[in-house]
Amino acid sequence: MIHTIAFYLFAAMVIASAMMVIFARNPVHSVMWLILSFFNAAGLMVLVGAEFIAMLLVIVYVGAVAVLFLFVVMMLDIDYAEMRAGFMRNMPLGLLIALILLAEIVLGIGAYRTGAIELGTPDGTGAAPLGASNIEAIGSLMFTRYVFLFEAAGIILLVAMIGAIVLTHLGSGPARGQQNVSRQNRRRPEEATRNVTPEIGKGIEL
Amino acid sequence: MDLQSSLQVVLPEIILAVAGVAMLMIAAFVGDKASRLVSIVGVSVLTAVAIITAFQMTGDTLGREAFGGQIRADAFAGFAKILAIVAAIVTLVVSPAFFERVAKMRAEFPILIVFAVLGMSIMVSARDLISFYVGLELNSLAAYVMASFLRDDDRSTEAGVKYFVLGGLASGILLFGMSLLYGFSGGTSYEAVRLAGMDGGSIGYVFGLTFVLVGLAFKISAVPFHMWTPDVYEGAPTPTTGFFATAPKVAAVAVLARITVEAFGSQLTAWQPIVITAALLSILWGALGAIGQTNIKRLLAYSSINNIGFLLIGLATGTLAGVSAMLVYLAIYVAMVAGSFVAVMMLKDADGMPVEDIDAIKGLSKTRPMIALALMMLMFSLAGIPPLFGFWGKFVVFQAAVQADLIILAAIGIAASVIGAYYYIKIVKLMYFDEPADVITGKSETSYGVVLAICALVISPLGYLLTIPLGDWADRAAAALTAFV
After folding, report:
1. What angle do CA B333, B336, B342 make, to 5 degrees?
2. Interface test with chain B among A148, A157, A162, A172, by most B beta carbons within 10 Å
3. Rounded distance, CA B325 to CA B470, Å?
4. Looking at the partner chain, which of B108, B115, B184 has a beta carbon nearest the beta carbon of A120?
5. pLDDT surpassing 70 at residue A185
6. Residue B6 touches partner A, C-beta closer than 8 Å
């Protein structure tokens, strides 16, 4: 009973906050609604017993992706009113694409249910240890069987980081507008100023 | 699974990873002043890894498995690894002088090469779709950065972006194919994929196989998935281009051979037409596209597309002899292409700036006789003209094709290689029979000369001394591949 109530609560909240993402006037508020919908989706994941995915949703999507969205929203100067105007104009196309996607899902699930798709049977090499929770099972596979690939994936991220720095770092030249205090202090008035008596009606040569 | 024995099997990879991080530390604390030092460290580490790999593969042809069969360090992986490492060493030796002239040498370049080699060695020894993909992506990410390394240069940036976008597309196609294969076979190991294909395989399985082959065709730039190659090869800095044309090609071709023979070995009828089509189109398009090119790097890009076609002929046979012939061709190809790119890097004007225009090499035999001689040998070898070693590569590949009853394929290949000979010989004609253009007057470093001399020596008729050991290693490598089928 409590399960059902929790499910409908979370599900309704996900849909409602997703609607608010689209309809909120202020883009920053949109991101906030998005975060709320992520939290509720995490709640749904806990209900189906996938607590690892629930934690990933909170840590990765709320913690990293949504914050990145916030930065982008704040930094880019986008006219959201105009974008929303386009939303109404493109509504028929959007509905059509939504319908096509729905039809694909229905057809795919239907074909799978009738047994028209012969999927392979799992060979069991990646099977989870019995009786372990989600997180334990994933952790024990990742750090035993897949430890080499896990580390290699870490090196991929390292290479991506090196690449980002190499391609954006401006080198070690002195930054523009750098201040040299001792040179400023050594400077005497006679080096920087000169007295001129310009003729009437004429400027001076600089 | 015994972790310790697994770690012994992946010792070369561990050394590469640790060395890469250590080189990064040197670079971080000393700065770009250390780039030559880091290059030297890189060359010595790669040499050490090559020696360890050679020891690993002399012992047991089948090698040993690591991490439950995700990695297998057999003779085939060893052959490809050593070839890729040799190509990487050539790049490391020639790159500092090239980048220092424009004051763009940074210590990260050799580090990226070491990580790229790490990715290649993972992918050639992978016997699992996941480890294959992880290795491929490590290699590709390093390559994207290397392509746009001269980031103030518009062409280099363009090359990097183009390579990144199309490489990403190829990875996506590859992953899509892999996910289909996984779904229809129930496992990610090549063994599981092979077993699922034994009973004919479902339509989804064949779709997955096709997508994987298309993704790999992108990576080896086989026609019709070659369109990025000329632009990227032209725009990227020349040492990077030389690297792209050798090491990652070796790794990708080796992976293609391994996946077709080990994972799709039971599905010969499904993949053979794809490989044959790609081979024929690559040979023809590589030969025809090169005619009329005015940039020598673009010309070499078409030449490498052309060569991929010949390599695929060996693979298309699907036999042990065919794979062995392909590996022999691959080894000779690396020597020819590495030599050609070093020779191109030695073409400099009076200010020491690189010259890429084909008209500039007119009369090179009078101004720079040694470069002209080496370039002539390389071009004749690429064209497959008999006294030179390039002929031997083409010979073994066509022999394997004829033995496997692919006589029409071999005949078209030989006819197309005559078209290819046209533009190779045109370069020789420009160098030896035209009036000097007097553009190429700049001096080059001794290291370039040494590398070029070694490459020229390998492809010279003296190279035939290598035919027996090379054929022997290639046979052992191919035997390791076909042992499980």
Report:
1. 135
2. A148
3. 10
4. B184
5. yes
6. yes
- Judged against a pLDDT cut of 70, whether residue A95 lies above it is answered with yes
The distance from CA B349 to its chain's CA centroid, rounded to whole angstroms, is: 29
Distance CA B123, CA A118 (A): 30
Chain B residues whose CB is inside 8 A of the A145 CB are 1, 67-68
Cis preceding-peptide flag for B224 (omega within 30 of 0): yes
- Report yes or no: A129 at the B interface, CB cutoff 8 Å: no
Q: What's the DSSP call for residue A79?
A: -
Q: What average pLDDT is seen over chain B?
A: 89
Helix (H, G, I), strand (E, B) or coil at A197: coil
Are B201 and B184 contacting, i.e. CB atoms less than 8 angstroms apart?
yes
Inspect the interface and report whether the beta carbons of B115 and A159 lie closer than 8 Å.
Answer: yes
Residue of B24, B54, B52, B118 whose CA lies nearest to A148:
B118
At residue A175, does pLDDT exceed 60? no
Instruction: Quote the ipTM score.
Output: 0.92
Written in H, E and C, the secondary structure of chain B is: CCHHHHHHHCHHHHHHHHHHHHHHHHHHHHHHHHHHHHHHHHHHHHHHHHHHHHHHHHHCCCCEEECCCCEEECHHHHHHHHHHHHHHHHHHHHHHHHHHHCCCCCCHHHHHHHHHHHHHHHHHHECEHHHHHHHHHHHHHHHHHHHCCCCCCHHHHHHHHHHHHHHHHHHHHHHHHHHHHHHHHCCCEHHHHHHHHCCCCCHHHHHHHHHHHHHHHHHCCCCCCCCHHHHHHHHCCHHHHHHHHHHHHHHHHHHHHHHHHHHCHHHHHHHHHHHHHHHHHHHHHHHHHHCCCCEHHHHHHHHHHHHHHHHHHHHHCCCHHHHHHHHHHHHHHHHHHHHHHHHHHCCECCCCCECCEHHHHCCHHHHCHHHHHHHHHHHHHHHCCCCCCHHHHHHHHHHHHHHCCCHHHHHHHHHHHHHHHHHHHHHHHHHHHCCCCCCCCCCCCHHHHHHHHHHHHHHCHHHHHHHHHHHHHHHHHHHHHHCCC
- Give the pTM: 0.88
Q: Tokens in use for B477?
A: 């490598």
A126 interaction partners in chain B (CB closer than 8 Å): 187-188
pLDDT of residue A42: 94
Question: Per-residue pLDDT tens for B262-273?
Answer: 888 888 888 899
Q: Under a CB-based contact definition with an 8 Å cutoff, are residues B392 and B328 in contact?
A: yes
* B222 CB neighbour count, 10 Å cutoff: 30
| Euclidean distance between CA atoms B209 and B185, whole angstroms | 11
N-term to C-term CA, chain B: 24
